[in-house]
């Protein structure tokens, strides 16, 4: 760490760029904003002040979301109506979270976050076992019908047009409010909470959930980023290279997402969720 | 449903004669998906250009950043990052590299807001009242967030 602190500004920027590229690549493949990977590296390895790490992360989250979403939207993978409907809840949550940030203790946050993530990971693991059987058609849902939330997408790995139906939009709305609050509190995109809310609660296919989550994250993060900027928590010297690196990585990742089979994507996702939730819980316990 | 029963020939003629020649050339390049995709890509590219230019300018104006470890302490220590729009604007006018980076980051923060605004005009053009209302709600919440941030 001393070695990094003795680095010149140029070396620092170069290292931050490389790390951010890796985080952006992984983040877009998983439907995460990359913030979960970036914040530990920036604070623990590069010794950046936590406030600035969070400020840089939140802008990079917008970059990842917008960069990857441009491709998902063009390819018809993201469901724009589901996204807009659920953004009501994520943005309201982001405002709540940013206002709560000064009240709740850091340890409680880490612990809560770890617990929620572990739950999401285990729930997805359970779904993975059931996935050998063909997708079950969700029961009819009046509100989903009225909002015309159903959709279809082209699956490049099976070369088929897959139509899907959506149900329980209100359950999704409630879960998205929680995801938005976590995003506003911790300065992350919280795609790890958004994907299960659509995948498990609303019955969207995993690829559509991942793409739609990526699409929505930018709006959620923009709500908190405005507040971080006003607080002076966005340092251009750190946030600049983070933003560029993450976008380049996310662009590369989004080009290869449709080529991954859903099963392997989900396994990768579960492994990352479990790892991060363990880290979070440990930090909550140790303080 | 009912027109199909009442006039079996009309629906078959309409798509071929009226819908295809007029609608196809206009709707294909202007699907909402494509518009939004272009906006996202354009906004991100503009933001990244500003950030990259600003970073290059910074190192141009401060050659000591290639050799001096002391400068890093100053640049990454918690002091005053610009946090008012007027500060950033003045810095850009003074051709300060870090202000260009900051302007690029602010463009990035604005992109999702513009995307929601664009969605609103798309839903209104489609006369989709329910989604126009939903999108207006999202936009109002975003503006509320920025106002709350300014107050703090």
Automatic annotation (TrEMBL), chain A:
* Top-level division of the source organism's lineage: Bacteria
Membrane topology term reads: Multi-pass membrane protein
- Which locations, inside or outside the cell, does it occupy? Cell membrane
Which Pfam family, just one, is annotated for this protein?
A: TauE
Q: Does the keyword Hydrolase apply?
A: no
Q: Which PANTHER family match?
A: MEMBRANE TRANSPORTER PROTEIN YDHB-RELATED (PTHR30269:SF23), TRANSMEMBRANE PROTEIN YFCA (PTHR30269)
The identity of this protein, by name, is Probable membrane transporter protein
Q: What is the lineage of its organism?
A: Bacteria, Pseudomonadati, Myxococcota, Myxococcia, Myxococcales
TrEMBL record, chain B:
Q: Which UniProt keywords apply?
A: Membrane, Transmembrane, Transmembrane helix
> What superkingdom does the record give?
Bacteria
Reply yes or no: does the keyword Membrane apply: yes
Residue stretches spanning the membrane: 39-60, 99-118, 130-151
Q: What is the protein name given in its UniProt record?
A: DUF1634 domain-containing protein
């Amino acid at each position: 760490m001393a070695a990094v602190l003795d680095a010149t500004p140029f070396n620092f920027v170069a290292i931050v760029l490389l790390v951010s590229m890796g985080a952006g690549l992984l983040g877009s493949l998983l439907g995460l904003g990359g913030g979960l990977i970036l914040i530990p590296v920036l604070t623990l390895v590069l010794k950046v002040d936590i406030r600035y790490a969070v400020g840089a992360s939140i802008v990079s989250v917008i970059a990842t979301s917008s960069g990857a979403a441009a491709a998902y939207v063009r390819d018809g993978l993201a469901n724009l109506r589901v996204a807009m409907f659920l953004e009501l809840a994520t943005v309201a949550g982001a405002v709540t979270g940013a206002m709560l940030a000064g009240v709740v203790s850091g340890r409680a946050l880490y612990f809560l976050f770890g617990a929620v993530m572990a739950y999401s990971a285990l729930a997805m693991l359970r779904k993975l076992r059931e996935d050998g059987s063909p997708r079950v058609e969700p029961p009819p849902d009046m509100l989903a019908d009225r909002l015309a939330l159903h959709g279809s997408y082209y699956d490049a790995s099976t070369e088929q047009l897959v139509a899907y139906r959506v149900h329980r939009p209100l359950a999704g709305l409630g879960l998205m409010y929680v995801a938005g609050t976590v995003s506003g509190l911790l300065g992350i995109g919280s795609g790890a909470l958004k994907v299960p809310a659509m995948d498990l609660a609303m019955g969207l296919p995993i690829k559509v959930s991942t793409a739609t989550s990526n699409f929505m994250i930018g709006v959620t993060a923009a709500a908190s980023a405005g507040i971080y900027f006003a607080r002076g928590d966005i340092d251009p010297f750190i946030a600049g290279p983070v933003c560029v690196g993450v976008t380049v990585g996310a662009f590369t990742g989004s080009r290869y997402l449709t080529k991954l089979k859903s099963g392997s994507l989900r396994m990768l996702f579960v492994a990352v969720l479990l790892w991060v939730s363990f880290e979070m819980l440990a930090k909550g316990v140790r303080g | 449903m009912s027109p199909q029963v009442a006039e079996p020939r009309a629906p078959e003629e309409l798509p071929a004669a009226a819908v295809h020649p007029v609608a196809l050339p206009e709707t294909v390049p202007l699907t909402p998906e494509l518009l939004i995709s272009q906006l996202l890509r354009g906004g991100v590219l503009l933001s990244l250009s500003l950030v990259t230019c600003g970073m290059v300018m910074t190192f141009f104006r401060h050659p000591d950043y290639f050799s001096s470890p002391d400068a890093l302490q100053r640049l990454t220590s918690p002091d005053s990052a610009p946090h008012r729009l007027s500060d950033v604007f003045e810095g850009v006018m003074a051709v300060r590299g870090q202000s260009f980076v900051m302007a690029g980051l602010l463009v990035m923060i604005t992109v999702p807001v513009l995307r929601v605004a664009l969605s609103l005009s798309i839903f209104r053009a489609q006369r989709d009242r329910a989604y126009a209302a939903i999108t207006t709600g999202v936009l109002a919440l975003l503006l509320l967030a920025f106002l709350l941030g300014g107050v703090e």
